[in-house]
Amino acid sequence: MAIETGITLYRKPFNGTRETSITIAMSILDLQFEVQVIDTSNKEQLRDWCQKMDSIGLEGFGSLPVITDTLPNGDKITLFEIGTILEYIADRYDYESRIKPRDCLKSDLKIMSWLYWSIGHFGPLLDQTLGYHAATEHQTENSAITGGQPRDQQVADYLTNQLRRHFRILDELLLKSHGCMLGDRPTIADIACFTWAAVDNITQAGISLEEFPNVQRWVENMFTWAGIRNRKGTMTGQLDAIISAYSALRIT
Topology of 8-93 in CATH? Predict the structure, then answer.
């Protein structure tokens, strides 16, 4: 049975890893929530959004995603940063410990450590690496595209090697666990990390998930656990499909 909440998710028109993580967490917990799309490339919408943030003391804040909710005492809250949002959703609405165990400090600290490793190290490094490779895909040091920068192969290799090292860390963690990052059940750490690891364009950086069999198996299992359907294989990395799968059920 769906759980009524006062949550509104504010997100950009495209569905990135952060928006996807939030949507998965709320859908797994069967939470009802609303979505408002903010097109930050539209000057009018961006201005209105910044004014809304200014009105609650977040002057100049234009980042997304953001959620708002109402506490039991009636106070309105606004939360940003994916780690804070996932932790709040789990602490407030995960009554059955489906994505975050309750009353176990040791487990809680482990989950928080790997959650913030995912969103503070793994995810940003993956974004930076893929962004650099994509932006310089057809460029060399001697033939830069007009207005662009030539590829520095040392930089490209460094980013790829660092990303491969982080995938190896994740692969070894999954090898020692029981199928998920911290045991036999996914947590908010798995949800956050999964949405980055699942993208299939890591091949742009010369990396394949086949190098990391434990990560590959975990990603496939996460798609199944999250209830994603109608995918051309489990490694397509088209995160829009995740939002679409849930929007028909949950998003109004």
Answer: Glutaredoxin (3.40.30)
pTM score of the predicted model: 0.83
Where exactly are the structural domains of the chain? 8-93, 105-237
Using the structure block, give the residue that is written with the tokens 């990052």. Answer: 181
252 residues of the chain, pLDDT tens digit each: 788 899 999 888 776 788 889 999 998 999 999 988 887 777 887 777 777 777 666 655 667 889 999 999 999 999 989 999 999 999 999 999 999 988 788 889 999 999 999 999 999 999 999 988 888 876 655 544 434 567 888 999 999 999 999 999 999 999 999 889 999 899 999 999 998 998 878 888 899 999 999 999 999 999 888 776 433 333 233 344 444 444 433 333
Distances (CA, A) of 145 to 92, 129, 131, 149, 198: 50, 19, 16, 7, 30
Q: Give the CATH number of domain 105-237.
A: 1.20.1050.10
CB 25 within 8 A of CB 188: yes
Asked whether the CA dihedral 81, 119, 45, 241 is positive or negative, the reply is negative
